[in-house]
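Hi Q.,

Before the meeting this afternoon, I wanted you to have the magnesium ion prediction in hand. No need to reply - just skim if you have a minute. The sequence and ligand are here:
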Amino acid sequence: MIEVKDLKKSYPFGKSKIEVLKGVNLAVEKGDMIAIMGRSGSGKSTLLNILAGLDQPDSGIYLYEESRITDKRMDELANFRKKNIGFILQNYPLIDSKNVAENVGLPLRYSKKSNKQRETEVTQVLDTLGINYLKHRWVDMLSGGEAQRVAIARALVQHPDLILADEPTGSLDEETEKDILDLCKRLNHQGKTIILVTHDQHVAAVCHKVYYIQGGTVVDK
Ligand SMILES: Nc1ncnc2c1ncn2[C@@H]1O[C@H](COP(=O)(O)OP(=O)(O)O)[C@@H](O)[C@H]1O
Ligand SMILES: [Mg+2]
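Predicted structure with the ligand bound:
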């Protein structure tokens, strides 16, 4: 599904630059659930953002189902994301002035679907995650675990094949972390490919494979 070859990425730093990714190689099969670990600042988020099509590397190749993402323009990248990627972050950035259903429906806002269709799709994804009862709540009243589930629902509403999660349980207590992990496992069983960035051994333990970013490259130990 994914093939990454010799990916390099640096950021400007004063007059010089920091080389974050120095030649990353990675292959991910459809249906995989993999963890990426590594020290803070090692480049985990940098890699995930590139896989999500949110950023482009300086050099190297990123193939997604044979399609060369590294050649795409910004507008093409936006389409690629919309069609294929569900992105989940540590701090579930929801919009406080909207309720749960409105937040989950946000990605559908520019689609050609009718309001009725959008509502059905939002209801479906909330049902799948077992959180339909939260539908009309204001998001600033949710617990951390509920908010993360809502953010996951929003990431899923367009039926992406690939879910990228950047420390999705990083802000949650242990119990809630377990619930979110179970949810990830369930999504994986339903056929979603999942790449999780994590610090946490519990999280890594449920994945099929664990990779580490070390010295700017990806290794498996
Ligand atoms: N947009 C940016 N501009 C400059 N430096 C950045 C930027 N994003 C990340 N970095 C730097 O790149 C390195 C890797 O960051 P990151 O990928 O966020 O690491 P991780 O997610 O593993 O903690 C860090 O040294 C960070 O400060
Ligand atoms: Mg990070």
